[in-house]
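FW: tagging you since you asked about this chain on Friday. Here's the raw sequence from the shared folder, copied in full. Didn't touch anything.
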Amino acid sequence: MRILVIEDTTVLGEAIAERLQKLGHGTDLIDNGRQAADWLRHQQVDLIILDLNLPGLDGDALLTELRQRKNTTPVLILTARDGINDRIKLLDSGADDYLAKPFDFGELEARVRALLRRRQGYASDVSEHGNLVFNRTAKTVTIAGEPCGLVNREFRLLEIFLSGLERVMSKEELTDRLFNADETPSANAIELYVARLRKKLAGSSVRIQTLRGLGYVAHVQTENSQP
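HL: got it, structure written out here
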């Protein structure tokens, strides 16, 4: 999934971005609030991790601006403010969750999973799709009870497809959600990843169909619909 980290403390911002990239997320890092607000006018992400004390435009103002623009992207606030009134204000301003500094990276990852899961419409980190079980916490996939070994990018690509079952996704959308802005994937990168994913999902209920000139659509094949 595509995540934007807005944090002006270089060491912390880079540590968060590196951690999320290792999990397979396309992650961008911006250290200025105004630059981030302008960037988000032209880019879409699945989650924003937002520090409050930023140059250019502070996090409170950036959050307010996003919500006034009707941008509904989930926002996880990183804050040193721990007063109850501060937390109430943040949530009322449109934040989806907050994490007090200093924080444990394991808790950060858990909150990221929870927000992405909610955005995808799932109540649990484990979801079943026919004979395929997708576990966001353990980062595992099983097919008919057997493990399916996916590398990070394949796992995230499957997560994107499962978040939009029956919806046509173009190569451009998949590229934007799988890679960060600094990466330059080859023109056929998505085709290669989809081909690898299809091969590993053979025997599963999840099917990824190519629609020539449009992109791809994933669906869950039920027993009644199987030939």
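FW: The mean pLDDT is 91.
HL: agreed, and The first strand starts at residue 2 and ends at 6.
FW: great, closing this out.
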